[in-house]
Design goal:
The complex is a heterodimer of chains A (about 100) and B (about 475). With about 100 residues, chain A is an alpha+beta fold. Chain A has a domain at about 5-45: Histone, subunit A, CATH 1.10.20. Helix content of chain A is about 35%, strand content about 10%. Chain A has three helices and three strands. Chain A is flat. The two termini of chain A are about 35 Å apart. With about 475 residues, chain B is α+β, with helices and mostly antiparallel strands. Chain B folds into three domains: about 5-290, no CATH class; about 300-410, no CATH class; about 415-475, Arc Repressor Mutant, subunit A. Chain B has helices spanning about 55-65, 160-180, 220-240, 285-295, 300-310, 315-320, 325-335, 340-355, 370-380, 385-400, 400-410, 415-430, 430-440, 445-455, 465-475, and strands spanning about 5-15, 50, 70, 75, 75-80, 90-95, 100-110, 110-125, 130, 140, 150-155, 190-200, 210-215, 245-250, 255-260, 270-275, 280. In chain B, the strands form four sheets. Chain B has a nine-stranded mixed beta sheet. A three-stranded antiparallel beta sheet of chain B has the order 6-5-16, with no helix packed on it. A two-stranded antiparallel ribbon of chain B has the order 4-17. Chain B is elongated and about 95 Å long. The chains are: A alpha+beta (about 100), B alpha+beta (about 475). Strand 3 of chain A pairs antiparallel with strand 10 (about 140) of chain B.
Chain lengths: ~100, ~475
């Protein structure tokens, strides 16, 4: 087993996912298999190879500091489950 | 046991670009909620952030102004966390490859210069603003600020007192403002500071357990919060207890730091390179061209004010704290005022006036030319130093030229020996007892007589002349 049930619960907690024990068991198995598959990469000699963060070999895409028309507030809020006075409304969470 | 504090500061400075870091929305402050938003800063599916060139240029300016090593290659990373001020579920920041590292700023405190190292400077996007409803269990989210460019400046744990922390922050802000890349306004949130504090036995190497302080919204709050937290940690240690690693909020109303419950678990931000943004390569030519645009910075200007104008270090420090004040001083000197006189008038009456009215020096009712003219009137004996204060107050109120005020109010100094003699005679005739006492040895009364002569001439007598005439007549 590549990943423990506790690790699955921890990751689920970070992602704000509520998993029951059956789901934890199922994902531990699935994620374990994925990790085993990824482990194959460890068999390759990567000495002197930079970690890849991008699949395309480009750098430096810029935009100039020029204003672009913003989205209408109505459109910005169109998919909000709740809105009030131009604001998105969310449950109160004080850190 | 003696404990010494160890302090490191993290400063977030908002950059003054017109548009956000990854989209073309305005960064202007104070617009109605959610009017400066677009699919990119709202984190809509399918959006693609593109880096604002100006933001990189501004970050480079700060990096070069603080002697940092600019990374040839840097990268943006996603910092993952869930909070309603962050529509994407991650903040775009820089993690293992920041744009700049290993810089320093120098602070002057009690006549001593100290170097505070900078660990790193990185670019990131700001989060949105939450307004919590006081009555209902809801919050209102405004995403106008989401994506506004920030640089985070992280200091080495080189700071040893709240005063040093204050001096460091003022220097950082001064550099940012000289560079014209940030307003550096703590009250409005364009310059924010978090502090890491620990204590250790004096002279020992390992650092103690640190706490992180938040909600430090002014320079005074930073210094007060640090002073409190150091005392608190010392008290815990003195009682044989252990400081707990935690985040604490400064409560300015009650002047104490309070533990933020629920933050005990360590954050796990699962940083990873943002695949939406290409790596940033900064060629030497770019660095050189930005280097050329750097203005004279506070330390250089201060040094020049000391050597070129012969000002004391203290004066030079006050005058160069802001570029605008330094410009005012130089304008005053180039209009003919002596450097030290100009410095005294600016640091005293002028700053007093500006502070009291909360007016920036650029909008000073007394212009640099007028102040130079006033100083000239004192130096050529047209008015006395005492009258000059009256004239200055009138200049502050009316913005009129000092010569005009002197003329209108008939304040020209009396240097005519005959007129002064007449005034002295009148005073001596009026005060026979004091004259008797003076002649009997109470020479301290000379000051009293000078005062009376000034009164007699409504402040216009040349004090030096009055002194001489009095001494001669009282022999």
């Amino acid at each position: 087993m590549k990943i423990t049930h506790d690790e699955v619960r921890y990751v689920a907690d970070l992602a704000r996912l509520d998993l029951d024990e059956a789901a934890v068991d199922k994902f531990a198995g699935q994620i374990g298999e994925i990790l085993l598959y990824i482990d194959k990469l460890n068999e390759v000699d990567t000495d002197g190879v930079d970690p890849t963060s991008h699949a395309i070999f480009l750098t430096n895409a810029f935009r100039e500091d020029e204003l672009v028309e913003p989205l209408d507030t109505d459109r910005a809020l169109a998919n909000a489950p709740e809105q009030e006075n131009g604001c998105f409304v969310v449950p109160k969470i004080i850190p | 046991m003696e404990f010494e504090p160890v302090i490191g500061l993290e400063v977030h400075a908002q950059l003054k670009s017109n548009t956000k870091i990854f989209c073309g929305c305005s960064t202007a402050f104070g617009a109605p909620p959610n009017t400066h938003v677009c699919p990119v800063c709202l984190g809509m599916p399918g959006m693609l952030p593109v880096l604002n060139r100006k933001v990189v240029e501004y970050a480079l300016k700060m990096a070069l102004a603080t002697g940092c090593v600019v990374s040839k290659k840097s990268r943006f990373a996603r910092k993952n966390y869930f909070y309603p001020d962050l529509p994407k579920g991650y903040q775009i920041s820089q993690y293992e490859l920041p744009i700049a590292e290993h810089g320093a700023v120098e602070i002057d405190l009690d006549g001593k210069r100290k170097r505070i190292g900078l660990t790193r400077i990185h670019m990131e996007e700001d989060a949105g603003k939450l307004i919590h409803d006081p009555n209902r269990p809801v919050s209102f989210v405004d995403f106008n600020r989401t994506g506004v460019p920030l640089i985070e400046i992280v200091s080495e744990p080189d700071i040893r007192s709240p005063e040093e922390a204050g001096a460091y922050l003022r220097k950082l802000r001064s550099i940012l403002r000289y560079l014209g890349i940030s307003d550096g306004n703590m009250e409005e949130g364009s310059f924010r500071c978090d502090a890491n504090v620990s204590i250790r036995a004096q002279g020992t190497e390992p650092f103690g357990i640190r706490t992180e302080l938040k909600n430090l919204n002014s320079f005074k709050h930073v210094e007060n919060a640090l002073a409190y937290e150091i005392r608190r940690q010392q008290a815990v240690a003195a009682e044989g207890g252990r400081v707990v690693q935690e985040t604490r909020l400064w409560d300015p109303e009650r002047s104490r730091t309070v533990s933020m419950r629920g933050k005990e678990e360590a954050h796990d931000y699962r940083y990873f390179p943002d695949p939406d943004l290409l790596p940033l390569m900064i060629e030497d030519e770019w660095i050189e061209s930005v280097q050329k645009t750097l203005p004279e910075l506070p330390d250089e200007k201060k040094g020049r004010f000391e050597t070129v104008y012969g000002l004391p270090a203290y004066d030079a420090g006050v005058l160069t704290a802001s570029k605008e004040l330094a410009d005012f001083f130089e304008a005053c000197v180039s209009a003919g005022a002596g450097a030290k006189s100009a410095s005294n008038w600016i640091m005293g009456p002028l700053l007093g006036l500006l502070h009291a009215a909360a007016t920036p020096v650029e909008e000073s009712p007394v212009s640099a030319d007028h102040l130079a003219e006033l100083i000239g009137l004192i130096e050529n004996d047209t008015i006395s130093g005492k009258i000059a204060k009256t004239v200055f107050d009138e200049m502050a109120a009316s913005s009129k030229a000092p010569a005009v005020i002197v003329e209108e109010k008939g304040l020209v100094q009396v240097t005519d020996a005959g007129a002064i003699e007449a005034a002295v005679d009148a005073v001596l005739a009026r005060c026979p007892d004091e004259v008797e006492a003076y002649k009997g040895g109470k020479t301290k009364l000379l000051g009293f007589f000078v005062g009376q002569v000034m009164k007699e001439t409504r402040g216009k007598a040349n004090p030096k002349l009055a002194n001489e005439v009095l001494k001669a007549k009282l022999k």
